[in-house]
Amino acid sequence: xxxxxxxxxxxxxxxxxxxxxxxxxxxxxxxxxxxxxxxxxxxxxxxxxxxxxxxxxxxxxxxxxxxxxxxxxxxxxxxxxxxxxxxxxxxxxxxxxxxxxxxxxxxxxxxxxxxxxxxxxxxxxxxxxxxxxxxxxxxxxxxxxxxxxxxxxxxxxxxxxxxxxxxxxxxxxxxxxxxxxxxxxxxxxxxxxxxxxxxxxxxxxxxxxxxxxxxxxxxxxxxxxxxxxxxxxxxxxxxxxxxxxxxxxxxxxxxxxxxxxxxxxxxxxxxxxxxxxxxxxxxxxxxxxxxxxxxxxxxxxxxxxxxxxxxxxxxxxxxxxxxxxxxxxxxxxxxxxxxxxxxxxxxxxxxxxxxxxxxxxxxxxxxxxxxxxxxxxxxxxxxxxxxxxxxxxxxxxxxxxxxxxxxxxxxxxxxxxxx
Length: 419
Hints:
70% of the residues lie in helices and 9% in strands. By secondary structure, it is of the alpha+beta class. The protein folds into 2 domains: 2-207, no CATH class; 282-419, 2-Layer Sandwich (Heat Shock Protein 90), CATH 3.30.565. The strands form 2 sheets. The protein has a 5-stranded mixed sheet, covered by helices on one side. Helix 1 (2-21) runs parallel beside helix 5, helix 5 (114-146) runs parallel beside helix 7 and helix 7 (177-258) crosses helix 10 (321-339). The longest helix is centred in the middle third of the chain and has 82 residues, at 177-258. The two termini are 50 Å apart.
């Protein structure tokens, strides 16, 4: 019965770990419920085979009844497919094997004490799960987005470990001396390999953070430079108008003296219109966001794109202003580029943002109507080197737990974001 308990415990623990790794395409409630139901089914099958055929048969066919079906299930649930999903499952198998082998070794050394076995399972499981939640999961989820190559090689090495400890080294850790020595030794070597992978993932994260910070700094610098240029242009226009004011007053006085009051009013209205055109437009209070709006809305208007904006943002935002500015810049740039493919009379951008009760953004732009979405609901660029803006927005949403939705309705493409 100890073997059955160990198999059942490792099965439940392994599926729980995969769930912790998982970035699901569905809601959290639906995902957890699906995995829990599947866990119950697998545990029942494991128990039935153990009582019907014994532990040796169960070990030989365990992959067929647990690992392969679970891989298919998580491939259905996960946002990531292919080698990256296989790596998640193999990582879970490695952690479970490490816990099982370490606990089995303690059980063997203690002379077969079940209390030592139970205590080892509890301590090691809690330590591994805490490590996953606090460190590895956030690091791993970011690496899934940043690292595009090499997953197959990592999976190949971990699959070799899987075959060695399950099929090539016979016996059960804690009972046979040879397996009790060899399997923990191989697992210890794989822990060293996985430590190297963690250093790799950490370096990938640092490079991604450095690129993001550089993009953030460049965005802030560019936006503020655009705002300064707009302010200087407005100040130059005002200085010119102030210089010409004396001449205009003299002209108005002459028109009034002649009795041409209508002409004088028309002349004053024309002067007022020129002043209004040169007036600086302030879109919102946060300075970096205001600079981004000013830059891209001005660019859109120069391209003949009609801009309709309703912006109500306070100084205190629930996210970093600079990071949100990058999201807005990427979204507005995509909207401007989509409009440039249309005739001038069809070009339009509508932007609505509020910061209370939640930070909500809705950006709607005209487009050609041939947008392609992937299985995660994200728009896919057909041109090489494009689509990085959508990835940046997705990374921002994952960091702050934001809900992001892309939609195409007729010839209108929309982005909705709620934090």
